[in-house]
Design brief:
By secondary structure, the protein is mainly α. Helices cover 70% and strands 2% of the residues. The chain is built from twelve helices and two strands; from the N terminus they run ββαααααααααααα. Strand 1 and strand 2 form a beta hairpin. Helix 5 crosses helix 9. Its main location: membrane.
């Protein structure tokens, strides 16, 4: 509220706080409530869509030229064949192998990207007609996604390696990791702390593109529908916007996701460096030269089939939880 002297204060119980203290408390409350939102949404979304994420990861490794040159062969089985093969050869519960680091990853990734995007939206500012221009939404989405993924990259590395363990056992190879904690320890012992960020460049590139598709598309489509149609700020509007965002995110993010998966899954030498690829550019060149441009879209169908329900579940849950907690609509 404003005092007669024009100083903003926050009254809580018998306490009266001055402007700096009030802003600090309000900001802290905002971040806490937003992060609480992410925990709830992640707990709903990850278990529902994780089998498709595992199938996508396995497909992205199939037919990898660099692995064939090192004597490793992987059968071509397609999306359904891969999923059914996991159930038949490894057991149905293996469809959720790597789900624990996936939850850890999304707690960090989604929490950071959502809060960062809203803060960037305030910093970049709206136009005079209270619209958030598309170019600003694109910058905000890419920056938010990049920062969130960089923070969460170690958990993504562990997730990818755990997802490939079942395949390695079927090929008669010794297991690399025996759980999340062991995976972290093994990576650090072999390459130091820096090794936890192996593949972070394509990882961050992918996240920037995915969030250009996800955050930017959802925000833009939702407010376009509210301004230009009779739709209200309800689940129907949220569902339509999330459907568009899931498709755009899958289309833009799949090539970088293929490169990220291959770099993170490659074997490493004694110094912790990858044996198959020197960099993300090297991986891109080898993949396109050896398998064709279409190889960059390996796993697109399960990626989109995962992102569509993930995006729908995430945004509907996120908006509803914000409403329940008294936070304004996204």
């Amino acid at each position: 509220c404003s005092t007669p002297q024009g100083v903003f204060v926050l009254v809580k119980g018998s306490q009266v706080w001055s402007e700096p203290r009030a802003i600090s408390v309000l900001s802290s409350t905002f971040f806490e409530r937003c992060h609480c939102d992410q925990l709830k949404v992640v707990s709903i979304s990850v278990p529902v869509t994780f089998p498709l994420d595992l199938t996508k990861t396995r497909l992205q490794i199939q037919g990898e030229v660099a692995l064939r040159q090192h004597g490793s062969q992987t059968a071509y089985r397609g999306m359904l064949g891969t999923a059914l093969g996991i159930v038949r050869e490894e057991g149905p519960l293996k469809l959720w192998q790597g789900a624990t680091p996936a939850v850890y990853r999304h707690i960090v990734y989604s929490g950071v990207r959502m809060v960062a995007y809203e803060q960037l939206r305030d910093v970049l500012g709206r136009s005079e007609d209270d619209r958030f221009p598309l170019w600003k939404a694109a910058i905000g989405g890419m920056l938010a996604g990049a920062v969130g993924q960089f923070m969460a990259s170690p958990t993504d590395l562990v997730k990818v390696q755990m997802q490939m363990e079942g395949r390695r056992r079927l090929e008669g190879k010794p297991p690399r990791v025996h759980g999340v904690y062991h995976a972290f320890l093994k990576i650090v012992s072999e390459g130091g702390i820096r090794a936890l960020w192996a593949g972070w460049v394509p990882n961050v590139q992918r996240a920037a593109l995915v969030n250009l598709g996800d955050l930017t598309t959802y925000d833009t489509v939702k407010h376009f529908l509210l301004r230009n149609t009779s739709l209200q700020d309800t689940s129907l509007c949220h569902g339509l916007a999330s459907t568009c965002s899931g498709l755009v995110a899958a289309t833009m993010g799949t090539p970088a996701d293929v490169i990220k998966t291959r770099i993170m899954n490659q074997p490493r030498g004694p110094n912790g460096r990858g044996i198959l690829y020197k960099s993300s550019i090297d991986c891109l060149i080898q993949s396109v030269k050896g398998e064709g441009f279409i190889s960059l879209y390996k796993g697109f169908l399960p990626t989109w089939m995962r992102m569509a329900p993930w995006s729908m579940t995430f945004w509907l849950s996120f908006e509803q939880i914000r409403k329940t907690m008294g936070i304004s609509s996204f």
